[in-house]
């Protein structure tokens, strides 16, 4: 029998919320500043997964224009009751420093693929909201409470891979898990707010989900922060509003202090029960890679999703089978194997809509800047703001999900000046990227070159620039190999030559990036016209191939 191989959702897919409806399993994951919001994945057997849909597709549901990097959609919660899907999600606008400006919303749909409703605003008291449906029909919202006043009480501690400023801004501000009733009729939170759990000695309690079993309410939480001390913990109570007692053998799952494990940063989980009464925990993890230039660990693919099998003990506590370590290979449930047809590695842009794996930054794809109809068989991007902008970029990209892959595209672009650029990009955020782009300047004319940004420090690799003359089309390629990135180019897609040196792609990681530390590497295409003339570039195809 084929085992579950972790991570089941490789690449940037954090904060899983797992759900079963009849014979179908779904996992919703965070998307942060990338649009559309929330990825929903589908499986029939917990082994084979596919990206199915995105429920947050309109600016009326999610306005992220101007959001800083690594803000936006954090930790969605997907649930189902009485024929209706419920999705809770956040739009985090501010998260650095003592304050967190968070907007928590609810949308619903009768079908997982939509249409999804307009959002209902819930609260702004903290992030990681989750909806619990009790047996009596009442619905309850839980979320972590953010208390900015506690910042001054705690000293920074930065021994787990995060930078000092980040820890100074989060330690001590996690003030517990609060609960309040939600009224479906008035579409509002009603009644008193109660703080039901302050976490364990691990600290930084967040990511709450409530489950009911055997007369107990079980509160599953994340603790330890989302870096190398991350953990899943559990508490229970006979009363929904508490008091909650923590499992004396917590944590339920963690990689902390176990550097030999392949799956690190294990935490932020949610539970699902199979048709046959088996229990599984979906959780966040990361696979660090040692930089060739520095000894520090770096997760270039970001935070991913894994699944562990669990069992209930005679005294009513849940345990991960085999101990509280995250395993790469896990026994699957006793369900029929359900594989999905293999996906094409190449998108020839023959459709009128973007493929499901593509995302844009902060705002949805709009025909005013991304067009698949003006020139059939091509994706036309009209140049807009610079790669540093948190507002309006003409960039479309997909997640990198393997440490060995090859990305290829073909572009036709006739820049008239140095402010116009287009090409192939490996992107973490607007302060960290590697960009193989076509531009034009007074000395070289139309040429191909590499620009980089290293935590906001912009560079042009001038000695590697290549004159293109009147060449109308240019094929661009990126070979991504276990932390190394090599760009190449070709005039015909057959004969390839290296463009520039081998680059250290481990810089595109949570641990390295200072201005944003919660996403992952994307590969994509983009176009800029800082002059404001909206010069366009036509891309013939985009191919992402894992090796």
How is this structure best described in words?
The protein is an all-beta fold and about 550 residues long. The protein has two domains: about 5-330, Tachylectin-2, Chain A, CATH 2.115.10.20; about 345-545, Sandwich (Jelly Rolls). About 0% of the residues lie in helices and about 45% in strands.
SSE topology:
Blueprint: E1 4-5, E2 17-21, E3 24-29, E4 34-35, E5 39-43, E6 50-53, E7 77-81, E8 84-94, E9 101-109, E10 120-123, E11 130-133, E12 139-146, H1 164-170, E13 174-183, E14 188-197, E15 206-213, E16 216-223, E17 231-237, E18 245-246, E19 253-254, E20 264-273, E21 279-286, E22 289-290, E23 297-298, E24 303-312, E25 318-320, E26 329-330, E27 346-347, E28 359-361, E29 370-371, E30 379-382, E31 394-399, E32 404-412, E33 420-429, E34 432-441, E35 445-454, E36 457-460, E37 466-467, E38 473-481, E39 484-490, E40 497-504, E41 522-529, E42 536-546
Antiparallel strand pairs: 1-26, 2-3, 3-5, 4-28, 5-6, 7-8, 8-9, 9-10, 11-12, 12-13, 13-14, 15-16, 16-17, 17-18, 17-19, 20-21, 21-24, 22-23, 24-25, 27-42, 28-31, 29-30, 30-42, 31-41, 32-38, 32-42, 33-34, 33-41, 34-35, 35-36, 35-37, 38-39, 39-40
Features:
547 residues; mainly beta; Tachylectin-2, Chain A; Jelly Rolls; 8-stranded antiparallel β-sheet; 1 helix; 42 strands; 1% helix; globular
């Amino acid at each position: 029998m084929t085992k579950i191989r972790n991570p089941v959702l490789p690449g940037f897919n954090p904060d899983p919320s797992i759900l079963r409806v009849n014979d179908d399993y779904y996992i919703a994951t965070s998307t942060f500043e990338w649009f559309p919001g929330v990825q929903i994945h589908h499986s029939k057997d917990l082994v084979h997964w596919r990206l199915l849909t995105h429920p947050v597709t309109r600016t009326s549901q999610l306005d992220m224009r101007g959001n800083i990097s690594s803000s936006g959609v954090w930790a969605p919660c997907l649930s189902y009751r009485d024929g209706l899907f419920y999705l809770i999600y956040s739009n985090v606008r501010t998260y650095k420093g003592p304050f967190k400006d968070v907007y928590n919303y609810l949308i619903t749909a009768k079908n997982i693929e939509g249409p999804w409703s307009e959002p209902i605003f819930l609260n702004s008291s903290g992030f990681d909201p989750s909806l619990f449906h009790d047996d009596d029909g009442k619905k309850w919202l839980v979320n972590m409470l953010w208390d900015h006043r506690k910042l001054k009480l705690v000293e920074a501690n930065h021994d787990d891979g995060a930078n000092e400023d980040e820890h100074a801004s989060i330690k001590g501000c996690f003030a517990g898990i609060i609960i309040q009733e939600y009224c479906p009729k008035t579409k509002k939170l009603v009644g008193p707010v109660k703080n039901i759990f302050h976490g364990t000695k691990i600290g930084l309690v967040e990511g709450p989900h409530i489950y009911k079993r055997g007369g107990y309410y079980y509160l599953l939480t994340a603790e330890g922060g989302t870096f190398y001390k991350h953990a899943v913990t559990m508490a229970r109570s006979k009363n929904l509003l508490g008091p909650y007692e923590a499992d004396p053998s917590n944590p339920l799952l963690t990689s902390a202090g176990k550097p030999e494990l392949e799956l690190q940063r294990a935490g932020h989980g949610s539970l699902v029960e199979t048709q046959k009464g088996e229990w599984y925990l979906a959780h966040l993890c990361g696979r660090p890679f040692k930089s060739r230039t520095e000894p520090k660990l770096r997760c270039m693919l970001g935070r991913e999703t894994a699944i562990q099998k669990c069992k209930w003990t005679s005294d009513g506590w849940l345990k991960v089978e085999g101990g509280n370590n995250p395993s790469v290979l896990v026994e699957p449930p006793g369900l029929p194997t359900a594989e999905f047809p293999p996906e094409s590695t190449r998108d020839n842009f023959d459709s009128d809509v973007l493929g499901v794996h593509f995302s844009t930054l902060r705002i949805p794809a709009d025909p005013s800047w991304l067009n698949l109809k003006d020139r059939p068989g091509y994706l036309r991007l009209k140049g807009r703001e610079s790669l540093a902008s948190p507002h309006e970029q003409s960039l479309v990209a997909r997640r990198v999900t393997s440490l060995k892959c090859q990305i290829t595209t073909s572009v036709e672009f006739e820049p008239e000046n140095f402010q116009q650029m287009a090409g192939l990009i490996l992107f973490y955020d607007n302060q960290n990227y590697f960009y193989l782009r076509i531009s034009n300047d007074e000395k070289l004319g139309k040429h191909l070159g590499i620009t980089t940004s290293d935590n906001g420090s912009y560079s042009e690799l001038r000695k590697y620039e290549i004159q293109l003359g009147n060449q109308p089309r240019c094929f661009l390629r990126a070979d991504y190999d276990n932390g190394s990135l090599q760009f190449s180019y070709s005039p015909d897609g057959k004969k390839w030559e290296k463009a520039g040196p081998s680059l250290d792609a481990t810089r595109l990681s949570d641990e390295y990036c200072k201005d944003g530390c919660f996403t992952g590497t994307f590969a994509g295409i983009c176009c800029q016209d800082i002059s404001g003339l909206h010069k366009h570039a036509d891309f013939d195809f985009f191919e992402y191939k894992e090796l």
